[in-house]
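Structure ticket #2291
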Amino acid sequence: MSPDPISAELRQALRSLRLSPMLDTLPERFALARGQKMAHQDFLELVLADEVSRRESVSATNRSRAARLDPQMTLESWDETAAITYDRELWSELISLRFVEAGNHLLILGPVGVGKTHAATALGHVACRRRHSVVMARTDRLLKRLKASRLDGTYEAEMRRLIAVDVLVLDDFAIHPLDTIETSDIYEVVVERHRRRSIIAVSNREPPEWLATMADPPACPGSRGPPRQRRPRARARRRELPSPPKAKSWGGDALTPTAPRPRDEYRYRAPVPGPCPEHLSCILIRCNRFLCPNPVHVSPGRGRPGRFCSPACRVAEHRRLNGE
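Resolution: structure written out below.
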């Protein structure tokens, strides 16, 4: 018996509900329901289960593509007959992703050609199927991208993305020598993700050999024992600006000038412009208000910088220059 035709009204209703992909399987489901004399509730449950399965598959595929995971290195393509030995109970425990839920890290170590990258990528695919956000990259390319982001002002956004992702997979970790900036970036990522989000590091070097590849070993986590408690950023990066000089008087009371101040008057200059001690992607310039000691943060490449540290300074300077 030929499958029941799908009416135009049903097609329009499915399209309105964004269920158009169900049209590909509805004829077969109609035939199955008629042959097995399924109840209406069972037929509806079967059709909706097909749609849920399809959406989960599409969602996992999109997350895997966004994470830049190799589509060929999945759990199903793992060769069980390969001439390598590993702990199968430990592998089953890793596939459960309990270490991701606990915020623990995973190190996959071994010589070249034993399937370390395949194992890490397969775990990334499993995490995508369970609705975790994943980012996978070679460590050297990731550090080059972070270094380039400092030039276009996107360093903080890129760092926030690496810190917020559920699973960060670093392939070829500690393979190439790192300079001071790259060592600092690795330290920031590891410290910010410690006990919060998981890192899967793949390397053919043992952990004691990692410090030899870094430019500043004392700044690396684990080189001085357990990590110490970090101070708040506001105290860790603090810079005291000198107090502004006292205002001069033009006659009369020292606090109430009797004459308007000339436009070419002495302007207090804060120790700027210069690099910002709190943000690596911005610089400091002077506030244009008379005697204002506050600097103005400016991000390079983002339009014309503001000349005042606050709207109140802008209004006060306008009134002062116009004698209001």
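Closing remark: Confidence is low (pLDDT under 50) at residues 221-241, 247-271.
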